[in-house]
């Protein structure tokens, strides 16, 4: 008997743009053997982002050592690191003419530094062949290893992003192997190490959190001087993943944006289809123009 998937609210139904740029980006990624979180995590904005010639590159293999219940990235034993990947990413950035690039990774608890030195290598390669290109890194928690964090920060990315993903109470259910306080400390230490690097975090809602818990999370982020925030709707990738407990309306997201701005975040992206790299370049550009 076939089980019907739950029908989505109208505001979550989007027709992706699959034009010429989309095909070019997808072809280039395949040609260079690169991965993007857009593809691996089935991001709902993939068509629009690829059409605008933007992508969030996924490094350190496409297999994660953890198994978060909300995430569609493959989990298991990762493949050995590809020594040519940093060079290929820099090449892709150049061919696409990118002025802003986001680099993220699977979590690699099997590596001594959690992959930090690899992040640093990718940043260096991008800047060697793409002078002026701004880099945002979306890093794992490195199991709380602050030396690993410093390895990345020494390369002076424009933005250090680390997602909390959900409220403190739901961490044991949603984020296997992660720790709410540890993630907050990572963001706090990033700002202490280099105040010129913008700090950012993202959450997805609809996994069973309460409204007041969302507000508390935002306040916790502000206490550690996190400056940029993204808020989006959780969409269950499959029947094997955590089920959606609630679909928030566009009005709810608008209210959360107002609350976050009142709390003091410098830039907030809040909407049903927002993900952590959504309008990443625009967030930083808006801040540069404003301040």
Helix content: 25-40%
CATH class: Alpha Beta
- Biggest β-sheet description: 8 strands, mixed
Order of helices and strands: HEHHEEEHEHEHEHHEHEHEH
Estimate nothing, just give the exact number of structural domains.
Answer: 1
Strand ordering within the main sheet: 1-2-5-6-7-8-9-10
Spans with pLDDT under 50 lasting ≥5 residues? Answer: none
Number of strands: 10
SSE blueprint:
Elements lengths: L19 H13 L2 E2 H4 L5 H6 L4 E4 L3 E2 L9 E2 L9 H12 L3 E6 L10 H14 L4 E5 L7 H8 L5 E3 L9 H4 L5 H14 L4 E8 L5 H13 L4 E6 L16 H14 L3 E4 L9 H11 L1
Parallel strand pairs: 2-5, 3-4, 5-6, 6-7, 7-8, 8-9, 9-10
Antiparallel strand pairs: 1-2
Helix pairs in contact: 1-4, 4-5, 5-6, 6-8, 9-10
Keywords:
globular, eight-stranded mixed β-sheet, two-stranded parallel ribbon, 291 residues, TIM Barrel, alpha/beta, 14% strand, 11 helices, single chain
Question: Gist?
Answer:
The chain has 291 residues and is an alpha/beta fold.
Characterise the protein shown here.
The protein has a single domain (14-290), classed as Alpha-Beta Barrel (TIM Barrel). The protein is built from eleven helices and ten strands. The protein has helices at 20-32, 37-40, 46-51, 85-96, 116-129, 146-153, 171-174, 180-193, 211-223, 250-263, 280-290, and strands at 35-36, 56-59, 63-64, 74-75, 100-105, 134-138, 159-161, 198-205, 228-233, 267-270. Strand 8, helix 9 (211-223) and strand 9 form a beta-alpha-beta unit. Helix 1 (20-32) packs antiparallel against helix 4 (85-96), helix 6 packs across helix 8 and helix 9 packs parallel to helix 10. It is globular and about 45 Å long.
């Amino acid at each position: 008997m076939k089980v019907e998937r739950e029908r989505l609210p109208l505001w979550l139904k989007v027709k992706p743009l699959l034009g010429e740029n989309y095909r070019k980006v997808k072809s280039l990624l395949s040609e260079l053997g690169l991965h993007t979180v857009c593809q691996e995590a089935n991001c709902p904005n993939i068509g629009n982002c690829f059409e605008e010639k933007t992508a969030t590159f996924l490094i350190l293999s496409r297999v994660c050592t953890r198994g978060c219940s909300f995430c569609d990235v493959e989990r298991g034993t990762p493949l050995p690191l590809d020594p040519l990947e940093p060079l290929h990413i820099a090449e892709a950035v150049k061919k696409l003419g990118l002025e802003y690039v986001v680099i993220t990774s699977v979590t690699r608890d099997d590596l001594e530094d959690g992959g930090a030195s690899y992040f640093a290598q990718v940043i260096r390669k991008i800047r060697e062949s793409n002078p002026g290109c701004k880099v945002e890194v979306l890093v794992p928690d490195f199991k709380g290893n602050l030396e690993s964090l410093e390895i990345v920060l020494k390369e002076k990315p424009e933005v250090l992003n680390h997602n909390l993903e959900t409220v403190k109470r739901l961490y044991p259910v949603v984020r296997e192997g992660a720790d709410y306080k540890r993630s907050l400390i990572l963001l706090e230490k990033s700002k202490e190490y280099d105040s010129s690097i913008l700090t950012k975090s993202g959450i997805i809602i609809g996994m069973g959190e309460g409204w007041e818990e969302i507000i508390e999370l935002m306040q916790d982020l502000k206490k550690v001087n996190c400056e940029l925030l993204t808020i989006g709707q959780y969409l269950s990738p499959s029947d094997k993943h955590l089920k959606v407990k609630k679909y928030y309306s566009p009005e709810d997201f608008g209210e959360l944006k107002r609350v976050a701005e009142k709390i003091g975040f410098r830039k907030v992206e809040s909407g049903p289809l927002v993900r952590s790299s959504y309008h990443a370049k625009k967030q930083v550009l808006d801040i540069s123009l404003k301040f």
